[in-house]
Amino acid sequence: MKRILFVLFGLCAFCAAYADTPTVPMPAPRVSVFSTSTDWQAITGLMLNEYRGEFKVDSKLIGSKGLVLYYLDGFPCYGLGDTVRVWFGPNGKHDGSLRIACVHAPTEINFSWRHATRDADDATGTGLLTCPVESNGREMTIDMAKCVKGKDWSEYK
Length: 157
What we know:
10 strands, 157 residues, 10-stranded mixed sheet, globular, alpha+beta
């Protein structure tokens, strides 16, 4: 009987000690995104083609430091390698290019944008920028004066 009481007392002490131990919240798991873009030809039955984007620059959108745009993948297109970041300077010059692979010519595309100098690091963007696209064969024209700023990233929940 003493042994049973001793075991029960020990079990109660263990439970009390465990209950007082602060729990550390588990961090949210980091999501890895694997694009389905490599399968778009198989999924749609449509051939992927490369499109090149040229920009009509809008100085009002660029601001005094410059503007960095990052192309955001979305059907019917995905970005090709290092050609999805373009910086526009206050003087109207830009570096970078836009090349995307699409199953058909897009009518609009989305960018993440932020004001930054030319050599700024790849920090978090400000928000969404949606731009209409005019296509002539495999050449696209993005008139930045017609782009619409969407929500800032902090407004998405």
